[in-house]
Amino acid sequence: MAYDYNTADPFYYKLLKEYASENRKFQTDAERMLWRRLSTNQLGVHFRRQHIIGCYIADFVCLRKRLIIEIDGGYHSQENQKIKDYYRTEQLEQMGFKVLRFTNEEISTNISWVLDQIFNIIAKPS
Fold first, then answer.
1. What is the pTM of this model?
2. What is the pLDDT of residue 106?
């Protein structure tokens, strides 16, 4: 079965490609920790990191399962960022993706629980 890797909005692609490349070079500790688990197919599916979807860059995405994983740093608790995150999630879900959000702290202190949450979504039939 083929999966659509061309998920970017052509209007934003060039700019977002540069940002995605920078994000891959300068991962947060939490992103690095989770990517070590996701990149080795530990969960039985392929993930991409810093993948452009529409006019957004998803931290991690499994295109086959249409699953996006977002890692939220401290600024995501600010009210204006919560509103932006809400609309971003809503738009991505309208494109057919399921969005899971985890904080840096959840990944740093309880990576097993995070992986369990991801696996529970992956294990569901598509």
1. 0.83
2. 95
